[in-house]
C-alpha cells in the first residue's frame, strides 16, 4: 500500500513512517519542520538530537534497504499538497500535520491564531486534495481523547445513541475540550464529518490519549533513527516529563490535586493502532471513530508509577503538587469506551514497572544534557 | 449602551445598526465590504443599490440626528480590530462579520478556505480583543439553526440533558451541518464555548434560522437606507428568492421534494432578538444559546405562500421542482424548541398573506431590474 504521512517529522510521524515502511508499504513523509522551529523559537530542545528528514530517510534506507520519500512543505499550502498527491498517489493518508501542543495554543494570540489556521486549513486541504485526486483514498486523522473533555457520563467511541422525548438518533458524542489545541481537533472532526457526508470521503478519526515512550522496534537502539523527545512544559507529554524530572532530581510537577484522569498509550501502540486503522479502512461516506488508548491513569497514578520504578533503578523520586496552570477538573468521573481497536487486534503494551524503569535508564544516560530550566509550567490558561 | 456591530454593511448588520441607534445606543459599525466585493466578483447584484457605509451613516444622521461611527477593515485583522476596541470601548459586540452563504462556501477550494479562515479568525479575534480590553464586554454571536442539521430528535436550545447508562450530564447539543458555511458556525460555537469556560467570557450565541424580508421601521421607505437584497442562488435566502422569482415570472425553484423544513423569521424579528440578547446579557463564564426563529415551514409551504399571495397582487405564480443541488434530507422530522427569546419578550412578526403580498408589491416596482440569469441554482454540493 502507498501511505502518505503528513507531519512525518514529529514525535509520532517519524516512528509511524519507519513502522509502515518496515511492513512493506511505500511511504512518503511530508513536514514543514514547524515543531523543530518552534522548539528553537521557544528554546525547548528535545533530549535527543534528531537528524532532519532527508538524513533520517537516507539512514533508514542504509539499515533497512527501504526507501522513504521526503517532501518538505506545509500541508496548509494547498498547491504544494496537491502536487504531493499527484506525484505520490497514496492509497491512505495519515494526517499528523497539526500544531500538537495544548500549552503552545494558550501562549497568546499569535500562537492561537497559528494553531487554528494551521490545523484547520491543513485538514481542509487534505479533504480537498483527496476529493480532487482520488476520493477513494482513506484519510486516517489523528484526533484526541481531549475532544470529549471530562463529561459526567461514559464516553462512547465518537457517536452516541440518544433517546430524547420518546425519539432516538445516533449523533456525534458532544465535545468540550480543555485547550484551544484540543478545540481545533473538535473542529477538525466537524469538518471531516461534513465532507464525509457530502462527498462520501472515507475517514478514520483516531481519538488518541496522551502518548508516552521513547523507543520503537524500528529504531533498534540506533540514535540516528530516534524521534524527537520533549520534556518541557510546552511540548512534553506528562509521563515523558515525569521520567525526565525524576532523572534530573526535580520533584515531579503534579498539577493541582493530580486527580485528572486520562487514557494513555505507549508510542508502540500508536503505531499498531494507525496500522490497524489503515488495514481496516472506512467505507465510502463512513467516518469511523476509535478511542485510541490502552489504560486510564490519574496524574497521581503516573507520578506514583515513576516513583516506584525509580526505586528499582536507584533514584529517589519526589512528588510535589504545583499550582495548576490549566483550567480543568482535578477530580472527576472518567469512563471512556475503548473496545474498537482491541476488536481489530490491538495488543496493548501496558505500563509495567519494567517499562517505566527502562525509560528511566535510557534517560539516565543523558542526565547531563537535561535542561532543568524548561521543566516548570509557565503557560497559564487564564 | 455602546454597541459595536461587526459586519455592519450586511443584510442584517446595517438594519441592526439603525435599530440600535434609534433606541439610543452609541453604535459603531465595522465591515471589510466582503459581501459587496463578492457580489461584484460573482456577478450577483443586489436588487437595490446600497450606498457605502460612510454614505449611509451620514444619511442616517441627517434623518435621525444620530451618529453611527464607521470603521472599514477586516475583523480577521487582529491589530485593526484591537484598535477599534480601544477606540470605541464597547459594552456589547454583535458579531455578524462572517462569510454568510452556504453555496459560496461550496463553490471550490478558494471559497472554502476563505470561509473557514475568515469566520474562525474573526471569532478568535473577537474573543481575544474582549479578553485583552475588557472581559466584561458581552459578545452576541450570530450562529445558525443549520448547526443542528435535521436530527431525528427534538432540537433543544444549544444544550441537551443526556441520561446515559445510568448517569446524567448537560452537554452541547450534537451538531451536524449541511454546508461548509454552517460547519464554520459549529466551529465558532466550539471556539467561543471554550473561551467562555476558560476565560469567563460572556457570550450569547443566536442560532438563527433563514431570514426573510426587505424593510424595517428605521428605513421608513427611504431608499438610501435600504439594505442589500440578494435573490441569486449564492447570497439570496429562499423566501426572498421566491418573491423575486414570482415577480420575474420564473417558476419558483423548489429544490427536490421541497419537504426540507426550517425555522424562519422576519428581518424585523432579527433586530428584536439581537436587541433582547443585548438587554439580557450572559453572566461571566456563561454561554447563553437561543434558537432564533418564529415559525417552521417546509420549502413547499413557502412556495405555496408566495403562490397564494401572488393571486392577491395579480401574479400567476408557477412552482417547479428542480434537481436539488444540495446534499440534504428532503423529508425529515423537525421540531426545534424556541421559547427562550419569546420568554425575553420577542413579539413575532408572522408570515401572513399580507406580508408576502407587500414584499411582492415592493419587488414589482423593480421588476425591470431583475437579472433572470442569476436565479437558477448552479453550485453543486458534490
Number of strands of chain A: 14
Oligomeric grouping of the chains: homodimer
What would CATH call the architecture of chain A? 3-Layer(aba) Sandwich
Low-confidence stretches of chain A: none
Sheet-strand content of chain A, in percent, reads 15-25%
State the secondary-structure class of chain A: alpha/beta
According to CATH, the fold-level topology of chain A is: Rossmann fold
Shape of chain A: globular
Number of helices of chain A: 12
Description:
The structure is a homodimer of 382-residue chains. Chain A has 382 residues and is an alpha/beta fold. The first copy, chain A, has a single domain, classed as Rossmann fold, CATH 3.40.50. The first copy, chain A, has 12 helices and 14 strands. Chain A has helices at 13-22, 34-41, 53-64, 78-88, 102-105, 109-133, 180-199, 238-248, 267-279, 299-312, 340-344, 353-364; strands spanning 2-6, 26-31, 68-72, 92-95, 138-144, 159-164, 167-172, 202-208, 211-212, 252-255, 261-266, 287-292, 295-298, 319-322. In chain A, the strands form 4 sheets. Chain A has a 7-stranded parallel β-sheet, with helices on both faces. In chain A, strands 9-11-13 form a 3-stranded mixed β-sheet. In chain A, a hairpin with a 2-residue loop joins strand 6 (159-164) and strand 7. In chain A, helix 8 packs across helix 12.
Amino acid at each position: 500500500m502507498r501511505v502518505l504521512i503528513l507531519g512525518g517529522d514529529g514525535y509520532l510521524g517519524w516512528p509511524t513512517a519507519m513502522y509502515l515502511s518496515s511492513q512493506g508499504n511505500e511511504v512518503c513523509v511530508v513536514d514543514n519542520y514547524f515543531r523543530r522551529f518552534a522548539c528553537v523559537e521557544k528554546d525547548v530542545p528535545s533530549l535527543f538530537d534528531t537528524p532532519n528528514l532527508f538524513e533520517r530517510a537516507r539512514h533508514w534506507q542504509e539499515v533497512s534497504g527501504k526507501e522513504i520519500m521526503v517532501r518538505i512543505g506545509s500541508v496548509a499550502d494547498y498547491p504544494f499538497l496537491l502536487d504531493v498527491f499527484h506525484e505520490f498517489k497514496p492509497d491512505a493518508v495519515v494526517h499528523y500535520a497539526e500544531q500538537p501542543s495544548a500549552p503552545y495554543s494558550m501562549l497568546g494570540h499569535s500562537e492561537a491564531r497559528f494553531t487554528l489556521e494551521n490545523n484547520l486549513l491543513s485538514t481542509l486541504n487534505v479533504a480537498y486534495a483527496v476529493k480532487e485526486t482520488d476520493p477513494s483514498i482513506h484519510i486516517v486523522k489523528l484526533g484526541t481523547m481531549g475532544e470529549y473533555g471530562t463529561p459526567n457520563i461514559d464516553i462512547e467511541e465518537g457517536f452516541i445513541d440518544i433517546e430524547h422525548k420518546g425519539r432516538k438518533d445516533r449523533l456525534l458524542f458532544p465535545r468540550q475540550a480543555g485547550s484551544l489545541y484540543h478545540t481545533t481537533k473538535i473542529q477538525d472532526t466537524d469538518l471531516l464529518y461534513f465532507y464525509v457526508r457530502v462527498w462520501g470521503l472515507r475517514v478514520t478519526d483516531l481519538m488518541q490519549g496522551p502518548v508516552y515512550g521513547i523507543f520503537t522496534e524500528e529504531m533498534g537502539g540506533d540514535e540516528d533513527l530516534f524521534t524527537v523527545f520533549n520534556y518541557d512544559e510546552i511540548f512534553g507529554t506528562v509521563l515523558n516529563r515525569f521520567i525526565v524530572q525524576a532523572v534530573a532530581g526535580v520533584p515531579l510537577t503534579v498539577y493541582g490535586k493530580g486527580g485528572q484522569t486520562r487514557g494513555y498509550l505507549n508510542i508502540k501502540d500508536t503505531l499498531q493502532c494507525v496500522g490497524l486503522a489503515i488495514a481496516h479502512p472506512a467505507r465510502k461516506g463512513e467516518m469511523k471513530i476509535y478511542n485510541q488508548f490502552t489504560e486510564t491513569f490519574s496524574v497521581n497514578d503516573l507520578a506514583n508509577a515513576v516513583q516506584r520504578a525509580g526505586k528499582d533503578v536507584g533514584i529517589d523520586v519526589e512528588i510535589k503538587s504545583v499550582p495548576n496552570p490549566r483550567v480543568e477538573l482535578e477530580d472527576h468521573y472518567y469512563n471512556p469506551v475503548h473496545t474498537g481497536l482491541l476488536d481489530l487486534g490491538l495488543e496493548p503494551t501496558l505500563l509495567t514497572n519494567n517499562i517505566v524503569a527502562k525509560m528511566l535508564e535510557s534517560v539516565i544516560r543523558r542526565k547531563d544534557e537535561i535542561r532543568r530550566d524548561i521543566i516548570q509550567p509557565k503557560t497559564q490558561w487564564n
